[in-house]
Each structure stands twice: as structure tokens, then as C-alpha cells.
Amino acid sequence: MNILQVNNVTKAYVNHLALDNVSLEVREGEIFGLLGPNGAGKTTLIRMINQITAPDSGEIMLYGNRIKASDVSLIGYLPEERGLYKKMKAGEQAIYLAELKGVKPSVAEAKLREWFEKFDIIGWWDKKVEELSKGMQQKIQFITTVLHEPKLLIFDEPFSGFDPINANMLKQEIISLKAKGATVIFSTHNMESVEEICDSIVLIDKAKNILQGSVRDIKQNFKSNEYEIIVPSGIENFDMLLPEGCSLLRSENNGDTDVHILKIEKGKNAQLLGNILQVADIVSYREVLPTMNDIFIKTVQGYE
Amino acid sequence: MNKIKIIIKREYLTRVRKKSFLVMTILGPLLISALWVIPIFLSQATDSQSNIIVVDGTGVKEKDAAPLFEGKLRSDKNVKIEYMNDLDKAKLLLKEGSTEAVLSITRINGMPPIKSFWYHGDNEINALAMQDIETQISTLFKDYYLKYNCGVSDSAIAFINNPKVDFYSENINTGERTFREIKMVLGVALGFMIYFFIFLFGSQVIRSVSEEKMNRIVEVLVSSIKPTQLLIGKLVGIALVGLTQFLLWIVLTFAVVTAVQNAMPERFASVQQGKITMNEQIANAEQLSEPTNDNPDIIQGLFSINYSVVIGCFLFFFITGYFLYGSLFGAVGSLIDVDTDGQQFTLPITIPLIIAMVCLPTIMNNPSGPMAFWLSIIPFTSPIIMMMRIPFGVPGWQILLSAGLMLITIWGSVWMSAKIYRTAILLYGKKITYKEIWKWLRFKN
């Protein structure tokens, strides 16, 4: 089932078109990556899902119904530009933000204390935020995003500004939120994290949805029959071993071994491997799938 | 609605619990009381008395006429007078430094027939003391002249010196007396309070809005609550802080003044005594009019004011004035970011307030003239100017017109500010121009 559906959404600002007839869907329980270059319209889309701005046309559906004001309690949002009141005490501030999401103060306090314990910042409960380190502030921001146990979590560039330890913690928390049944949307430039944790993605560029699907499918679609073969160095006339339909793209010597990148047509693998095995052992042989980073760059450049 | 309450609560509590709120609450009444108490203390300070030796050489030995001024110049809070016959001796004392100045008065041929010389050491003579004595001498000389050269009676001279003529004015329709001065004081005080309140708490709105934008917490907030609700909650919260503070000031000022008066009754009693004796002197001198006393006038004047109208209008213009400017200040606050300040946007908004204050004297001279009328109708100056006019009595239709325009303008300004606010708070690191704001306002959502 789709938790979120964006249907033909268009949004124009004074000087430019931010989203042009964008549609996408997010299945319940998945981790969904919202990718795109800067200024593509990701934040605009996220703000519309959070009802901070409204689409000019099109609609946004949550659980099959048009999104409405009371749905804010179902959504947890960590914006790209995020911060806290510097002069307010950490605990008090977290309760305030939870209250705005519709959590009763007494309930909020009990839950917050648990989270503060978990993240080892309970000693800072009564300290002003300005006295906390940046890492601690990020922890509080994360806690206030998830405290009301939203069904849908939206993280806009969550890894920017996080130190490696906190970034890793965030990654683990996102995975554990998914395990508990939450759906997570996050926009990022960090393609490694996309490969690691995303189930599906959408790629937005110049206000348009230009690529969408599960990470696995997309990788399959973008593969170009490239293989990497590693053999002991010193094979003479390696070219001669290639059957018809195979071509050598590039080679590299790594001391004891040679790494060759080949383009191999379907059905020629067996012949190639047979040829090589006659003269040498094969150290490693694998298909080279494009990285999300490659796909991202290729698609965006191709689109432009 | 419930969420607006949460916003109001936070805005109110965080401010009221601040140290600066406590400091302002205590300092405010002290400053206001000081304005009232210090002049009384200063007027009684005696340490500025100058010692002056007067050598009066106006006596004419041959005619056996006594000197004109000897024994007649009075010592007071500015001067302490001693008389001597020998000028040289007096000068010697001056050189020794045991007196501040020597005044030698001599008779000459001519008109006026006296001439005075001041002698002083390295320090110049206290100007107040000089002026004091010179006035006394001139008055005494005038009295002599009137008495001996013109044959005017003592009582007539006393009257000439204090020709207090009372002027009464009354409204021909109601037959009531008008008390211009009292109304002026009240009008200016009320206008000032509104001006002060708008500036003090309007600037808090700017700071509060821009702080949320610069902290980058605003986007988290507006994902839970509509920007307009956030702005309204903020305006109401700060207004309540302002009202709390004003209420505390009024109560504390009253308490401080009463306490000071009770602690040192003799000082204040003497001030009042002084006033009364002066009034008595005047009253005795004037045979032509009935003797009157100031105090009943003030009380009568204060009673002549329609307080239900004054208080009602004050509350109305106090609150609407704040909301009009507060909403605009909110929009200005949303335009401020870490690297841009809001000066260029604040100035145009504060100009009407400044105009109102600059026009104050003109309006006080003619509280129902065209300038007063227009400025009390135009919404941006009306909270201050209308309040200044109210004690003088303003026709009902003018108050209603002004109030109606005010409400319409507030509606417009809140609408406009909300539009600017909700766009600008999410615009980071971008310099915003007037042209851009104009586009936002015309842009349909």
C-alpha cells in the first residue's frame, strides 16, 4: 500500500517553476530516497508534504486521502535548515516541540527522558541549548522529530552537518525506525547512503521527476554489461584471448595482478572464461553494476 | 486554536521569566518616580548658596537719607547676603577668599540714578546668584520709583508686581469649564505611553521573529503550525507581556511614590506649604478678583474629563496600535537573516510614529485643528494623536471613523505581513529587496 502519493503536483514561485507536474509514490514501510541536484525542487516538495506550502495544482495524498492539517501529527520532519532556541532549556524545548505536534506535555516528558537516557544526554536536560555541543543539539533535533512516533518520517539532507559518529547513529536509527514499521523519506546528496539503506528512489531535476523506481531495478536498467576480471600479471597478448563480442575497455596493473574491465555481450562469458583458463588462473570475476552516483550523474547530464 | 495557545504560552512565559523583564519591571517605576521626586530634592538643595557682600553706597550723607538697599535684599537658596560699609575692607575679604563676590552699589547722576559694580576673585560669580540679586535690585528700585516719584500706593505696587489675571473658558454647549493645561498633560502622557509601548514591544516582535529565523527553528515550527498562527500567537504573547509590565509599573510607581512621601513627609509638606504661602501672597495682593487656590482647580479639572471615554479609547488605541505596528514589525523581522539587518525596512515603518511625535506641539496648541484632525484619523498616527486629543473631547463620529479605519488597516497589515512573513522566514541567506516583496504581495497563492 502507498502511504504517500503525489499526483501531478506543480508549484510556481515568483521567479521560477519549482515543481512541474511531478508524481511519485512511496510504499508503506520503505526507505525512500529523494535525489536531485541543488535547486531541483526537493525541498519544495518536502515542504508541500509538510503543508508548509501548498501546490498550485495537483494533490498530495496520505493513506489515500488528501493531506489535511491534522495529519501533521503523523509526520516527523527534520528540515535541512534546522536549529533550536538557543536560550531555552533542552528538556523544556523538546516538550514544547512535542506539544506542537499534539503530544500531551506529561506524556512527552516521560518519553523524552527515555530518549535522553538512550542518547546519553539526560544530564543536559536542564541546560540551555547554547551550552550543548553541536552533536548533542543534533541528537535533540532527531529526538524531537521522532518523539511523536510518526508513521512517515521526512529527513531533508540529514547527513549534512552531522559528524561521522552522529551520522552513523542516524543511519542506524533510520534502519531501526523502518524495522518498527515507519516509512522514511530522505533527500540527500550522499549516494553511498542511498545504496546502503534506500529501497526506492526518485530523481528530480529542473522541477521534473526524471527517474523513479527501486534501487535494484534501476541498477539493473543502468548496467552496461561491464565485467571486471582479475588475473595474475604477466599474461601475454591478453587481447588475443577475447572472443568476438568482447572488448577491453581498460586495464590496470596492481603488482601481482592485472585488473581488466571488459564489455561482454550476452552469452560470451563462458567462451571468454574458457580462453583465459587455458593460460592462467582467474583471481576474481564479477559484473560491474553502476553506482548510484554514476546513475545520478549520467541521468542528470543526459537530461540536460 | 489550541496550538496558538501553546505559542502564546511560550512567548509569554519565556519573556516574563527573563532577568531583563524583572530588571525593567523594577527600574521602570524607579525611573518614573525619580522624574517626579528628584526635582523636588534638587529644588531644596542648599549647598549652592553664594556668599555675597553688598556695599550699599546709595545713602546720601548731607540729606541724611539711608541707603536704598541695605537690609532689603533677601538671602535665599541662591545667595547669602551680608552688608558692609567699607568697600576696601570688603575687597580685602574677597581677596582672602572668605566671600565669593562683592557688589558695590553707588549713586550717580542720571537715570537710573544708581550703578552697581561686581567684584569677583578667580572664580566667576554664580550666574543664578547674580541674576537673583539683579532682579531684586531692579524690583526694589522700581518700587521706590513708583512710590516716591509717582506716588503709587503700596498695595497698588504689590498688585502691579503680581498681576495675576485668571482666564476661564467654557464650552458654550455644555456650559462646562475647560481645563486646558490638565487635559494637555493627560493627553501628552497617554500619547507617550502608546508611543513607548509600540516601540518597546514592537522591537521585541522584530527580535523574536528574526531570532527564530536565524536559529533555523522556524521550519520545524511551521511543519506543526501555520505560519500565520505562529505570527499571531507571537503578537498576542508579546502584547500580554507588555500589558503585564505596564500594570506592574503602574502599581509599583504608585507604591514607590507613596512610600517616599510617607518616609519623608516634611520635605513634601514644605513643598506644598511653599505653594500655599505663595498663593496667599498673590491672593492678598489681588483685591480685584476673588482669591482662588490651585488645588480645587486641578481636582475640578480632573473631574471634568470623561474617563469612560478616555480609558475605553486608550485601551482600544493601545492594543490596536500595537497590533498594527507589531504585525509590520513581524514582517520586518522575517526579512532579517544572519548576514542582513532590517534597518532599511524598519525605518519606513517608524517614520509615522516619529511624525506624530514631531507634530505634538502644534497639535497641543490646536487640538481640534486640521492637522490634529487628519493625523488622528490616519491609522498610522492615530493611536498617538487621537489619544492626545481625547481628553479635550473629540466628536463621536471622529472617534468612530478613526477606530473603523484602524481596524480595516490592521486587517490589511496582518494580511500583508502574513504574506511576507510566511515567504521570508523560509528564505535563507538571500538578500531581499523591496521589489521582491512587492512581487510576493501581488503573487496569488
The quaternary structure here is: heterodimer
CATH topological fold name of the largest domain in chain A: Rossmann fold
- Shape type of chain B: elongated
SSE pattern of chain B: HHEEHEEHHHHHHHHHHHHHH
What are the secondary-structure elements of chain A, in order, as H or E?
Answer: EEEHEEEHHHEHEHEEHEEEHEH
Mind describing the biggest β-sheet of chain B? 4 strands, mixed
Return Rg of chain A in Å: 24 Å
CATH class of the largest domain in chain A: Alpha Beta
- Indicate how many domains the architecture of chain A comprises: 2
Alpha plus pi helix count of chain A:
9
Most extensive interface between two protein chains, with residue counts: A-B, 28 and 26 residues
- Spans where pLDDT lies below 50 across 5 or more residues of chain B: 273-279, 281-294
Side by side, the strands of the main sheet of chain B go 2-1-3-4
Mean pLDDT of chain A comes to 89
Task: Characterise this structure.
The complex is a heterodimer of chains A (304) and B (445). Chain A has nine helices and 14 strands. Chain A folds into two domains: 2-220, 3-Layer(aba) Sandwich (Rossmann fold); 224-288, Ribosomal protein S6/Translation elongation factor EF1B (Alpha-Beta Plaits). In chain A, helix 2 (90-100) crosses helix 3 (105-118) and helix 2 (90-100) packs parallel to helix 4. In chain A, the strands form three sheets. Chain A has a six-stranded mixed sheet, with helices on both faces. Chain A has a four-stranded antiparallel sheet with strand order 2-1-4-5, with helices on one face. A four-stranded antiparallel sheet of chain A has the order 12-13-11-14, with no helix packed on it. Chain A has 304 residues and is an alpha/beta fold. Chain A is elongated, with a radius of gyration of 24 Å. The mean pLDDT of chain A is 89. Helices cover 67% and strands 6% of the residues of chain B. Chain B is built from 17 helices and four strands. In chain B, a hairpin with a 6-residue loop joins strand 3 and strand 4. In chain B, helix 1 runs parallel beside helix 8 (227-263), helix 6 packs across helix 8 and helix 6 (180-215) packs parallel to helix 11. Chain B is elongated, with a radius of gyration of 32 Å. The model of chain B is unreliable at 273-279 and 281-294 (pLDDT under 50). At the A-B interface, strand 6 and helix 2 of A face helix 1, helix 6, helix 7 and helix 17 of B.
